[in-house]
Specification:
Elements lengths: L3 H22 L2 H25 L2 H20 L3 H28 L2 H20 L5
Helix pairs in contact: 2-3, 2-5, 3-4, 4-5
Length: 132
């Protein structure tokens, strides 16, 4: 009844519009949450691609996760964040290296390590609610 490729394209278009709408309405705190979610989703998808031998897709997902992590890194406020921002900067740099290594060596454990680190940081961020 429906062409699977067209259905997939329609779903992707819907997701894109949905995400764009959410981004436009989100406060800065929520935007950071969305970045964490996006990075985690791409790492999970890269893991599946890696297990299925989909090398090009794996590389694309890992590249996107790295872009998001670098985006998180760029948002760090070093003046107000002090040592915490410095520590996060180092951690984000480490995660980027580990993702590159995971891609190069097809290493699921490195993907899982980065995913775990991101989940830990995200849980701390989720626990902090901005004032008013």
């Amino acid at each position: 009844m429906y062409n699977q490729m067209n259905t997939r394209s329609a779903l992707n278009a819907y997701r894109q519009v949905s995400v764009q709408g959410e981004v436009q309405e989100a406060d800065p705190h929520r935007l950071i949450q969305m970045l964490f979610d996006g990075a985690l989703e791409r790492i999970a998808t890269a893991r599946i691609c890696m297990q299925q031998g989909a090398t090009a897709d794996k590389g694309e997902r890992i590249s996107r996760a790295i872009e998001i992590i670098e985006g998180l890194r760029a948002t760090l406020d070093r003046e107000r964040g002090g040592p915490i921002a410095d520590n996060l900067d180092g951690l984000y740099s480490y995660m980027t290296r580990r993702l590159l290594e995971a891609n190069l060596h097809n290493d699921v454990e490195r993907l899982d390590e980065v995913s775990g680190l991101l989940k830990e940081i995200k849980s701390g961020w989720d626990a902090v609610r901005p004032a008013g």
